[in-house]
Amino acid sequence: MRRLMTCGLLLLGTMLLSTTLVGCNCCGARPIPDAPIVQVPPQEPMPYQPPTPAPIEPAPLVIPEPAPAPVVVTPPPPAPKPMTVEVPSTVAKAIEDLGTKYPGLFTFDRSRGLFLFNSDITFDSGSAVVKQRARNAIMTLADILNGDQAKDRVMTIIGYTDSYPVRKARTVAHLKALGKSANNRGLSEARAEAVAGVLSAGGVAKTRMVTKGKGTANPVASNRTASGRASNRRVEIYLTPMAR
């Protein structure tokens, strides 16, 4: 019995070994079917097409600004030279002596034939009536201008004022009585005519005199100071040869 069992085990082991080496149909590897071969027809080559260039955007239109016009600096005209008027030496000496006798009343520029009367000494403030002392000096001046050496001279008499407006009631009434405007222009006209009136009373012919009033025009100093305003209140007399 033992021998029979041993033989059976040997037989069983042999069978198992054979199965392992050979394999069975149920567990054996199956052959993989071949994949079908697909024939791809050759494609014709595409014709060469150059790359399409990217569109070029036009540059923005830049309108240049017009060049600025050249700045032409016109030089100011030269200041007119003061007119030179030859006053006979004997006449100039007599006038200078008169100025020494009445100091501060006027100054005389013999090269221009210019008298510059100080209005504060010639007139009271806001008045167009010549003071007595100034009147005496102007009467003497009339004698000089009537002499043989000066009788061919004419006079342009110009009045000026400072920038203060005319406010005194007496001055306003006086100007209106003279037919003048109640302002600085009217006052300057009245003062120039007052000086001409004294010269006429001294024998100077009215045809030899021209009067003008320029008010606050042509100041010679600042109207912000008392001394400047005093300088601007003035009467000028230009002594020039008579036109022929």
Give an account of the 3D structure.
With 244 residues, the chain is α+β, with helices and mostly antiparallel strands. The protein has a domain of 153 residues: 60s Ribosomal Protein L30, Chain: A (2-Layer Sandwich), CATH 3.30.1330.60. 35% of the residues lie in helices and 12% in strands. The chain contains seven helices and five strands; from the N terminus they run H-H-E-E-H-H-E-H-H-E-H-E. The chain is rod-shaped, with a radius of gyration of 63 Å. The mean pLDDT is 82.
Q: Could you write a compact summary of the structure shown?
A:
The chain is an alpha+beta fold. It is built from 7 helices and 5 strands.
Termini Cα gap: 190 Å
Radius of gyration, whole Å: 63 Å
CATH homologous superfamily (4th level) name of the domain at 89-241:
OmpA-like domain
General form: rod-shaped
On the 0-100 scale, what is the average pLDDT? Answer: 82
So, CATH architecture of the domain at 89-241? 2-Layer Sandwich
Q: Which regions are unreliable across 5 or more consecutive residues at pLDDT < 50?
A: none
By DSSP, the count of extended strands is 5
Task: Give helix and strand order, one letter per element, not per position.
Answer: HHEEHHEHHEHE
CATH class of the domain at 89-241: Alpha Beta
User: Helix count, per DSSP?
Assistant: 7
